Amino acid sequence: MPPSDGPARSTAHFPFQMLKEIYEQPDAIDETIEQHLDRTTGGVRLDRSPFTPAEWGDLRSVNIVASGSSRHAGLCGKLMIEELAAIPVDVEHASEYGCRKPLNGGSSLVIAITQSGETADTTAAQRLAKENGRRTLSISNVVDSTIVREADANFFTCAGKEVAIPATKSFTTQLTAMYMLAVFLAQHKGMLTPQRVADRLFSLSQIPSILAGLMERFDPQAESIAENFYKDEVFIYLGRGVHYPIALEGALKLKESSYVHAEGYPTGELRHGPTALLDETLPVVAIMTRDPKDPESMLRYEKSRLLLAEIREHSKRQILVASEGDEGIEQLGTPRFALPALEELLLPILEVVPLQLLAYHIAVRKGFNPDHPRNLVKSVTVD
Length: 383
Fold this sequence. Notes:
By secondary structure, the protein is α/β, with parallel strands linked by helices. 45% of the residues lie in helices and 14% in strands.
C-alpha cells in the first residue's frame, strides 16, 4: 500500500509532487521497517536470500555500487556496515565498476542500489560482479525490475511511486534499508547481541513518528531561509563521517531542482583548497549534529565547531543542521534546523529532510518546477 499524504496535509495542499513526496517520507520509512522486521527472531529479514546464516557470517568484504542519490545512501551504508558488522566496505560509482574486472569473489558481496531497478550502469555492474563469482544483493524500490530479478538476494524499499525526478522518499528508505542491512550483517557476524539488535531496531522504529512531528516545523523554516538565499548561485555543503554523504545529497538536491552550483565536502577537507572560495557572500550549509553518548561523534562535532569559527571569520552566511539544545550553536543566531537527540548512525535519515525542503523552496522561489528539472530523467537506462 502506498504511503499516505503525511501529517496535517491533504493532497490539494501540495503544489508539486516533490513536496508531496517529502511529506510521505515518515510513512515510507515506517513501511520499509515493518516489512523487514522478523517478528520470530527479533532481527531483520530480507525479502529474498538463497544464502545460509553461515554464508552470511562468512562475508569478508562488501562492495556497494550505485549512482547519484543511491550512491550517497551507499556511502552512509558503508559506515553503518563497518561500524556495526566490522566488514570492510568499498563504495563505487556503478559506471566505473562496470568497466573493469572485480578483484575478488567468494566470500564477498556486491550490493547494487537503484530506486528504479533499471539503472543501466548499476545493472551492468551487478552483472559483472556475478560473472566474476561474487554474491549480489539488490536494494530497489521496484519489485519486478531487472536488478531484482538478476540479483541473488533482495531488499525492497517501500517508498511507493516517486514521480518527481529529485529523489526524496526513495533516498530515505534506502538509508533505512542500509541501516537494517548493517544490523542484519552484524547479527550474522556475531557483532551484536540479540538485545543490542532489538535496541537498535527499536530506535529505528521511532524515526517515522519523530520525522512526522518535525515536518511542519522544517517546511516553514526552509521556506523562510530560502527567501534570503535563493539569489545565490554557489553553495558549499559540509559534513563529517556519516554526515558527509548527506552534505553530498543536499548539494545534489540543490543542483537538480534549482540549477545552482553546489558542492559537498567532508568538513575537514575545507582547509585543503576549497577554503579559498570563502568570502562574505558564499553560503555554507554545515551539518553540525552530535550524539552526546558517542565519544567519536562528539570529537567530530568539536572539530567541526572549530572549523565553523574559522568560516565565520570570513562570512556569517551559514545555514546549519544542528542538535536541539546546542546552546553554542543557538547563540550564533545563524539560520538552522534543529534535530532531536539520536544515535549517530540514525541522524542522516532526519538530516537530509530539511535539506530537501531547502532545495525545493529555493527552486520554487526561483520560479522553477522542481518535479521536472531540465535535462534529467527519473531513471538513466542508457550507459
